[in-house]
Predict the structure of Nitrogen fixation protein NifU.
Amino acid sequence: MWEYTDKVKEYFLEPKNVGSIDDANAVGEVGSLACGDALKLFLKIEDGVITDAKFQTFGCASAIASSSALTELLKGKTIDEAQKITNKDIADFLGGLPKEKMHCSVMGQEALEAAIKNYYGEKVEKVELEGELVCHCFGVTDELIRRAIRENDLKTVEDVTNFTKAGGGCGDCVPRIQELLDEVRGQAHTEAPAEKKPLTNIQRMQLVMQVIDEEIRPSLRKDKGDIELVDITGTVVQVALRGACTNCPASQLTLTDFVQKTLRELVDPDIVVKEVSA
Ligand code: FES
C-alpha cells in the first residue's frame, strides 16, 4: 500500500484537536461521505487571531492526519497568516504525503477557506461547487483543478486525480481535465490519445487475474491483508478481502481507492469492483 511518514502515522493514530468548538465563530465544511472524505473545521477567532481549532473528519489515515496537522498549523495564527496556508504546507508539516493522497491536504485547504468565508459572513453552501462542475463523480470544479495545477505544478491528469480526486471515477471528465492542464500550463495538447482496441472478455479476465496477482495482492500482503478473486462478469469484478483486510475499517476505501483504481488504470477504465462474502 502507501508509504506514510512517521508524522502521518503519529497524527493518524493520535490525532490532535479532534472534536468541535461550541462557540466557534468560523466553521468550514467540505467533501461528502459519498466521495469517501468529509471534513468539518471549527475555529475560534478572537481579535483576528485563531485561538482554537478543532476538526471532525471522515476519511482515510491521510485525511485524519492532514486535518489534524491543519489545526496545529492554524493555532495562534492571524487570519491573514492562515489565509496563506496551502495544501503543500499541510503536506510538508507531515513530512510529505503519498501522491495518491495529496487530495487530503487539498481538502484541508478548502475547509480553511470555507471557515474564513463563514467568519466574514459570506455564504458558503459548498465550497467545492464554486465554478464549473468538471467532475460529477467527486464534485470537483474547474476553479479547484486550476488552483491545484498552479500551486502544485501538476503535469498530468493522473496528478490532478491524486490531488483533487477528479477523474478517479467514471473518467468522463478526463478530456476536460486535460483541457484545463493545457490552459493553465499554457501549452496545447498536441498528442492525440492513443486509440486502444477494446479488450475481449478473455483478455480482460486474464489481465484482471494478472494485475491482482502481480500488483494488488503483493501490496495488500505487505499489510497482512489479502484478496481473493471470486468471479468476473464483463467489467464487474467480484472479490473477497481476506486476512487483515477483512475487518479493516478502511476496507471499502481499499476496494475503491486501491483495487478498483488499479484495475481501471491497468486493465479497463469501466471496471467496477464489488465485494462479496464468499
Ligand atoms: S465525472 Fe470525473 S470521474 Fe466521473
In short: Residues 135-137, 166-173 surround FE2/S2 (inorganic) cluster (CB under 6 Å). The chain has ten helices and eight strands. Residues 201-275 form a domain with the GMP Synthetase; Chain A, domain 3 fold (CATH 3.30.300.130). Residues 207 and 267 are 6 Å apart (CA to CA).
